[in-house]
Amino acid sequence: MDSVDDNTNVQPMPKLDSQDPVKNHGESSAGASGGSEDGSFDCNICLELAQDPVVTLCGHLFCWPCLHRWVKSRIGSNKDCPVCKAIVKEDKVVPLYGRGKVGSVDPRSKAVPGVDIPHRPSGQRPDAARHPEQQHQPYGFTFVAGSGIPVTAARFGNITLSAGFGLFPSLFGFHLHGYDGTGTPSGFHFRIPGNHRPAASPSNQYQQQEVILSRILLFLGCFVIVCLIFF
Amino acid sequence: MSTSTPQKTLSRIAAHRLQKELAEWQANPPTGFKHKATDDIQLWIIEVTGAPGTLYENEQYYLQVDFPEQYPMEAPQVIFVKDPPMHPHIYSNGHICLDILYDSWSPAMTVSSICMSILSMLSSSTSKERPPDNDRYVRNCRNGRSPKETRWWFHDDKV
């Protein structure tokens, strides 16, 4: 512990940033006691390779237990980032899920005396990307209103339009159905309303298109129904 | 002249972190500072040499750094021992009026970064004098009170 060990057996690792050789030599010697080689992935509090790593919105890396203990110790004062003093909210930190060690240690076994460390906040995951096949398929559309008897169906080229109404107008539902044009297009598609894909807010282009088209089809469907009633 | 807090054993986290800091210090010591080896990892004595071109050029002072059980969540106690430098923010009992040692402590700071702050504070001084309330403050600390128990009022950001 009392001198620089020149025989450190450190694996060559890609350097993330260029540093002057003297400093780098010094840090790699110190890093041999257990962090990453140049400290880029070390917790800013315990100075070790971050365990259960989390990143604050200001970009500073910590072990989740270290950051939690710090934030918890700041009762009555600002809960600030230890590095840059930006406000830190525990539910806004971003966990880092690397390849190694995930789930290998039971979090309950990592007891820190006197402090109960809750689970690390989970990542905020955007919707998954669609399967490519679904995205590039030619669209066919079917409109189904309610779950009752189909009243009419029309087919324009590759678009099938069918409309119907059921016993429960409040269950008005509609959906889009795509087919690839090689199969046998059937005129009617019965679907139970509510059994569709969840009507999540459109988060990508495909879903937005779907919403717009479904509105157009709803209008057409209503028009057809009105025509049938009056003529 | 040791006004150290009652000795407690360091937490496991504190011991790990101190070993790491010591190793990094030895590999890459801050310019102008020398760690005087003691057999107690919880109490560091650091020799400070005044920076060239400042009022304290080539003068030697000694810092004592005393680590609490909950380091680094809690700041270490840092005081000058032996003859403290004459400085508007350093009391004659060695206590240092520097916000990062008290209210503004953060666990991302290290002994090394504290040392740099203290050297910077020394270097920017324009007069070798004691704080105006030195006598009163030192009298109040006669019973060996730690500077961490003082309610500091930080007002001067120039020196």
Write the layout of secondary structure elements.
The complex is a heterodimer of chains A (231) and B (159).
Chain A: H1 21-31, E1 53-55, E2 61-63, H2 64-72, E3 94-95, H3 132-136, E4 149-156, E5 159-165, H4 205-230
Antiparallel strand pairs in A: 1-2, 1-3, 4-5
Chain B: H1 12-27, E1 33-36, E2 43-49, E3 60-66, E4 77-81, H2 111-123, H3 134-140
Antiparallel strand pairs in B: 1-2, 2-3, 3-4
Question: In a nutshell, what does this entry contain?
Answer:
The complex is a heterodimer of chains A (231) and B (159). With 231 residues, chain A is of the alpha+beta class. In chain A, 22% of the residues lie in helices and 10% in strands.
Proportion in β-strands of chain B: 5-15%
Number of domains of chain A: 2
Percentage of helical residues of chain A? 10-25%
Calculate the terminal CA-CA distance of chain A, rounded to whole Å: 96 Å
Most extensive chain interface and residues per partner? A-B, 28 and 22 residues
Helix count of chain B equals: 3
Tally of individual helices of chain A: 4
Uncertain parts of chain A: 1-36, 140-154, 159-202
Please state the structural category of chain B. Answer: alpha+beta
Give structural notes.
The complex is a heterodimer of chains A (231) and B (159). With 231 residues, chain A is α+β, with helices and mostly antiparallel strands. Chain A has 2 domains: 2-95, Zinc/RING finger domain, C3HC4 (zinc finger) (Herpes Virus-1, 2-Layer Sandwich); 132-230, no CATH class. Helix content of chain A is 22%, strand content 10%. Chain A has helices at residues 21-31, 64-72, 132-136, 205-230; strands at 53-55, 61-63, 94-95, 149-156, 159-165. In chain A, the strands form 2 sheets. A 3-stranded antiparallel beta sheet of chain A has the order 2-1-3. Chain A has a two-stranded antiparallel sheet with strand order 4-5. Chain B is built from 3 helices and 4 strands. The longest helix of chain B is centred in the N-terminal third of the chain and has 16 residues, at 12-27. The chains are: A alpha+beta (231), B alpha+beta (159). The A-B interface holds A 1-4, 23, 26-27, 29-30, 33-35, 44-48, 60, 66, 69-70, 73, 80, 82-83, 85, 112-113 and B 11, 13, 16-17, 19-24, 26-28, 37, 72-74, 106-110.
